[in-house]
Task: inverse folding
């Protein structure tokens, strides 16, 4: 397996120098919060014009401005979905982490701001005896696999919502899951869409990096194809979400119809007994009777109706684990399958 180095401490610096002298290709993973640009330039020989996009994590900067290629370095943004926390039932919530990748003839570098180190969390790494381009491909493919896992979580939650769409009880819980699924799909589309747009060129530039061992396989075309399939799957899931929103709207209309149906006979009764019958007039002959029957009872009905409608229509607080709870409920009910969790990857030091 290719060597993995984490950080730029004294031992790591010595190991990097040793690997480069021996001509061995390696993967180094860094946290931008723990290293400086000067340290990266001194330890890895990264030029200033490559360091700029490599350390630019601002959301206001377009993804195309984070791409750089000069024949010696290729810098581009990528996304990994890493474990945030586990909900009830043990289903892990996966949240996106922006990762900047630099490909050099001697190494592949991943830099991220915050989050855990990438090597222990990414599965399916490089077997021995493969080319340097395959090492880069394996790192990117492992990160892309986590995006498929995150999408699988959302798809399982949508499946559960579709199965429960005919039920009325628990609508507020389903609405919270619906909103969280919509947020995750929108986040994934925003993160992965730009990568899909520029990765074809990225693959071409990686193949032209000076000193990077060539390979007859078109590895980066595979990454581009997987990105295309992933974005198409996200769009398909969004279409399913639109259908669920329509079902939720129909459910709201149902409850409004129920309220209208309840008040229809009440309206008839109030209109009937509002007529000036002598029997009724002779019995409402005190202020207390008027206040109780003429004012208090209608007010009580109005307040009760308002409370019922307010309870069903009040904003649902965001529950970031609502999707994982829905998946856990599916698993306990024997419907579908809990998605494969990201397993720690063996590291070589």
Result:
């Amino acid at each position: 397996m290719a060597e993995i180095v984490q950080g730029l401490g004294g031992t790591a610096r010595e190991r990097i120098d040793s690997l480069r002298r021996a001509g061995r290709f390696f993967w180094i993973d860094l946290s931008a919060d723990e290293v400086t640009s000067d340290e990266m330039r001194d330890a890895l020989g990264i030029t200033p014009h490559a360091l700029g996009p490599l350390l630019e994590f601002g959301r206001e900067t377009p993804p195309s401005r984070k791409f750089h290629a000069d024949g010696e370095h290729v810098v581009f943004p990528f996304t990994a979905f890493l474990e945030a926390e586990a909900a009830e039932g043990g289903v892990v919530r996966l949240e996106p982490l922006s990762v900047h990748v630099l490909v050099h003839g001697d190494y592949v570098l991943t830099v991220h701001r915050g989050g855990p180190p990438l090597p222990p969390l990414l599965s399916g790494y490089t077997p021995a005896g493969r080319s340097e381009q395959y090492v880069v491909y394996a790192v990117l493919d492992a990160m892309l696999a986590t995006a498929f896992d995150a999408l699988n979580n959302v798809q399982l939650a949508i499946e559960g919502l579709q199965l429960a769409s005919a039920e009325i009880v628990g609508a507020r819980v389903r609405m919270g899951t619906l909103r969280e699924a919509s947020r995750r799909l929108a986040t994934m589309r925003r993160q992965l869409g730009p990568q899909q747009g520029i990765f074809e060129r990225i693959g071409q530039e990686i193949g032209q990096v000076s000193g990077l061992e060539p390979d007859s396989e078109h590895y980066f075309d595979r990454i581009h194809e997987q990105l295309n399939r992933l974005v198409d799957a996200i769009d398909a899931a969004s279409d399913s979400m639109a259908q669920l929103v329509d079902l939720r709207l129909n459910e709201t209309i149902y409850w409004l119809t129920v309220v209208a149906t309840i008040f229809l006979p009440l309206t008839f009764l109030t209109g009937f007994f509002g007529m000036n019958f002598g029997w009724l007039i002779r019995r409402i002959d005190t202020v207390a009777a008027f206040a109780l029957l003429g004012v208090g009872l209608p007010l009580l009905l109005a307040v009760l109706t308002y409370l019922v409608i307010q309870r069903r229509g009040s904003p649902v607080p965001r529950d970031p684990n609502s999707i994982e709870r829905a998946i856990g409920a599916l698993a306990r009910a024997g419907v579908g399958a809990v998605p494969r969790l990201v397993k720690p990857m063996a590291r070589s030091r």
Summary: Residues 219-273 form the longest helix (55 residues).
